[in-house]
Amino acid sequence: MESMAVGYNLPNWDAQLVHRIVGGLLLTGAFLGIFSRYFGLCAFPVPVMPSMLPVIGHFSRKRTGRKKVRVYMDGCFDLMHYGHANALRQAKALGDELVVGVVSDAEITENKGPPVMSLEERIVMVSAVKWVDDVIPDAPYAINEDFMRKLFTEYNIDYI
C-alpha cells in the first residue's frame, strides 16, 4: 500500500501571503495618508479629495440655534430583535431626539397575550439602544387622545 503524503501547496500559500502583505501595506498607507492630512501631520501638502468633502459634513450633525425635534415611537419590544433596532434607528433619523414608549405588561396581555419579558427588562433593553434618548414606561397599546395630549405638553413631542 502506497502512503500518500499530505502536503501544503506552498506556491499558492506564498502567493496569498504576498497579496495579504501588499494589501495590508496599501490600506495602512491609505489610512495614514488620510489621518495624517486630517490631523495636520503630513510633511508635504496632500490635495483634498473632492469626493470626501460631502462625507465629512455628515459627521457634524449638530444644529445650533434651533429647537431640537423630538420624535415619539412606542412598542412592546418583547424579545427585542434586529427589526426593533432598525425601526428605532429610522425613527431617530426623523429628528434630533427619540422618545420611546414601552407598553405595559397589562396592555400587552390584554391585546397580544402575556409578554415573555417583564416591563423592567424591556425598558432596560430599549434604553440601551444608542438611538434612544428617553423612555416612557407604561405607554398605552393604542394611543388615545389623552395620552397624545400628554406627549405634546409634558414630553414636548413634535412628531408621533
Features:
alpha/beta, 6 helices, 160 residues
SSE run: HHEHEHHEH
Strand content: 5-15%
Mean pLDDT reading: 79
Give the low-confidence spans.
none
Q: Could you state the oligomeric state of the chains shown?
A: single chain
Characterize the largest beta sheet: strand count, sense, and whether it forms a barrel.
Answer: 3 strands, parallel
Strands in their spatial order, largest beta sheet: 1-2-3
Please count the helical segments.
6
The number of distinct β-strands equals 3
Describe this structure in words.
The termini are far apart. The model has no long low-confidence stretch (mean pLDDT 79). The longest helix is centred in the first third of the chain and has 29 residues, at 10-38. Helix content is 45%, strand content 12%. With 160 residues, it is α/β, with parallel strands linked by helices.
